[in-house]
Structures are given as C-alpha cells and as structure tokens.
Design brief:
The chain has helices spanning 18-25, 57-65, 84-92, 103-112, 126-136, 141-155, 170-185; strands at residues 7-11, 31-33, 37-38, 53-54, 69-75, 78-83, 96-100, 117-122, 163-166. It is built from 7 helices and 9 strands; from the N terminus they run βαβββαββαβαβααβα. The strands form 2 sheets. A 5-stranded parallel β-sheet has the order 2-7-1-8-9, with helices on both faces. Strands 4-3-6-5 form a 4-stranded mixed β-sheet. The protein is α/β, with parallel strands linked by helices. The structure holds guanosine-5'-monophosphate. Guanosine-5'-monophosphate is lined by residues 14, 36, 40, 71, 73, 75, 80-82, 100-102, 104-105.
Length: 191
C-alpha cells in the first residue's frame, strides 16, 4: 500500500530566512509547497498564487466559514491561512507538503495531525534577525519593531517543536531539514 506524504511545518521569526530555505528545499521532487492565503498587502515583487493568495478580509472570512482552511491565525494585524484542498491532494500523491507558517497555526495542525513534523528555524543570533528584517527594506520601522517583538514571543513556543534548525547558511539549513524528513520517513511507527 502506498503511504501518504508527510506534513512538514516550518516556523520561525520573520527574518529567519525560512522562505529562502524552503525555496531551496522544494527544488526536490519529493516536496510540495503550500501557498497560503493572506489579508496582508503584497510586498514589491510578490506574485499572486506564488508567494500568497492575497484576499480581502471578507473573502478570507468566507473561506473560514466554508471550512476551506486547514488552519488560520492572526499575525501582526493580518490573517493568514492554509488552503486545505491543495495540501490533502499533494499528501495523497505521496508528496511531503511544506507549510511555512507561524506558531499558532503550527500548533493547530499538530492537534489534527499529530504525525506532522514541527521544525522551528532560528537565525544565528538576534542581531542577525534585526539585520535581515531591516535589510529586506519592505517594512517600515513600526512593522519591524512589531515583528521583532513577536519573534521574541514566538521563541517561547520552541519546546513544543520537534526540531530546531539554525539558519546559518541556506544550504546547511536545507540539508538539515532534508535529513530530518528522511529520518522521519524511516521511523518504524510510520511504516
Ligand atoms: P509574512 O507577512 O512575513 O509573509 O508572514 C508573517 C508570518 O505569517 C510568518 O511567520 C509566516 O510564516 C506566517 N504565515 C504565512 N502563511 C501562513 C499561514 O497560512 N498560516 C499561518 N498560521 N501563518 C502563516
């Protein structure tokens, strides 16, 4: 019997470089990346359907009501959620689906799918985090401060995660996650 793909959840403060690492990972055929829905405005260069599905609040509310989201959360004043259909379809096709989501959503998924793999990614140090957030140049000072504060709050959830990956370099972090997923797929309990 063919086994379903696994759910791989990657959280970590904005500015931890999750997005870049995930981009590296999904070059491999065994992974599929879930594209989230959000009410946040697109940043320059972000493309509808590739980075996010950008919706207004009402459309997002409708998706919630229609039970179209696997999880959702409010983060720094905007809503974010994972469209359910794509994830379930990819898992049925034996793909390991990567969700790059924040902690509240990650813990909601863990409740529904205890087998999911929770990975928390951190930058090498707090200074580096601020640097990455600032250099991105897409947020104003108030948003950066808000996200820094939220990053500190999110760190408190680390003990609830299965793995911690330090994003020193993209290549090393992607390799670490690949190793985690490979080892998880060999667990006797999954076979
Ligand atoms: P950003 O605005 O920087 O793209 O994302 C802000 C935070 O929301 C990040 O921590 C990101 O991982 C998280 N996020 C993105 N998509 C989702 C989602 O579908 N659900 C949840 N719960 N968080 C998400």
């Amino acid at each position: 019997m063919k086994r379903e793909g696994m759910l791989v959840i990657i959280s970590g403060p904005s500015g931890s470089g999750k997005g870049t690492v995930v981009k590296e990972l999904v070059k491999q055929d065994c992974f599929a990346l879930s594209v989230s829905a959000t009410t946040r405005a697109p940043r320059p260069g972000e493309v509808e359907g590739i980075h996010y599905y950008f919706y207004d609040k009402q459309t997002f509310e409708n998706m919630k009501q229609q039970n179209e989201l696997l999880e959702w959360a409010e983060f720094c004043g905007n809503y974010y959620g994972t469209p359910k259909k794509y994830v379930l379809k990819q898992m049925a096709e034996q793909k390991n689906v990567i969700l790059e989501i924040e902690v509240q959503g990650a813990l909601q998924i863990k409740k529904i799918y205890p087998d999911c793999i929770l990975i928390f990614m951190i930058p090498p140090n707090a200074k580096e985090l601020q640097k990455r957030l600032t250099e991105r140049g897409t947020e104003d000072k108030q948003t950066i401060d808000r996200r820094m504060n939220r990053a500190i709050e999110e760190m408190e959830f680390i003990p609830q995660y299965d793995y911690i990956v330090i994003n020193d370099t993209v290549k090393k972090a992607a390799e670490a996650i690949y190793s985690i997923v490979t080892a998880e797929s060999m667990k006797s309990s999954r076979n």
